[in-house]
Amino acid sequence: DIQMTQSPSTLSSSVGDRVTITCRASQSIYHWLAWYQQKPGKAPKLLIYKASSLENGVPSRFSGSGSGTEFTLTISSLQPDDFATYYCQQYNSYPRTFGQGTKVEIK
Amino acid sequence: LLQESGPGLVKPSETLSLTCSVSGDSMNNYYWSWIRQPPGKGLEWFGYIFYSGNTNYNPSLKSRITISVDTSKNQFSLKLSSVTAADTAVYYCARGGGYSYAFDSWGQGILVTVSS
Q1: A43: nearest CB among B42, B47, B109
Q2: Looking at CA atoms only, how far is residue A34 from chain B in angstroms?
Q3: With contact defined as beta carbons under 8 Å apart, do B80 and B64 qualify?
């Protein structure tokens, strides 16, 4: 299985901050990476697919980059609605696997 | 719109059965997956079924899983046999998981507790 490792596990930030989350794959997944946002008690929501493509309706302050084994999710200016847990997920190989999550907390 | 349904409590060693109803869209030409999340933990993909009936299961669970589809009812289902307390989780159905497809639509999730 491809292992997905996110860093940091927790991130404390303030409204307006630029936030970057890293996801590393244990082997190359080319650009087959997605990012999800999950709020407590809710299902994950797709933000980014194919490493850098913004899902319809997702604010442009979210962006993704990377290829191969290293990827980043950036929130350019953190908003109150963005405090949540973020997961990366590879869909290059089976089984599909997720990172362990990064919780973005209010500082 | 996806909606999970099924019992919220299952006894150890029994079979967990869930159904996902798909509304507002055809099931044709899409992959449909099951994903679970134990309380306070991360996400685990079970497997997918294509609308045609082709399946792909997570090897770690393959011996216990059956995913089936009924396109006439716009539903797909999950059966997980021989459950233990470790199978207690929120179970999600989602669209995607096949070749070049992320999970772009999710059900709200259903908490299934395994307990006697």
Answers
A1: B109
A2: 6
A3: yes
Q: Give the mean model confidence (pLDDT) for residues B53-79.
A: 95
pLDDT at residue A87 is higher than 90: yes
- Among A36, A43, A91, beta carbon nearest to B101: A91
> Which residues in chain B have their CB less than 8 angstroms from residue A97's CB?
45
Using a CB-CB cut-off of 8 Å, the residues of chain A touching B34 are none
| pLDDT number for residue B26 | 87
Tens digits of residue pLDDT in A52-67? 999 999 999 999 999 9
Q: How many CA atoms lie within 13 A of B86 on its CB side?
A: 4
| Residue A107 pLDDT greater than 90, yes or no | no
Q: With contacts defined as CB-CB under 8 Å, which chain B residues touch A45?
A: 106
Flag whether residue A49 sits within 8 Å of chain B, measured between CB atoms: yes
As a whole number of angstroms, the distance between CA B90 and CA B46 comes to 13
Rounded distance between C-alpha atoms, residue B31 and residue A69, angstroms: 25
Percent of chain A's residues with pLDDT above 90:
98
Q: Supply A48's token pair.
A: 């980014």
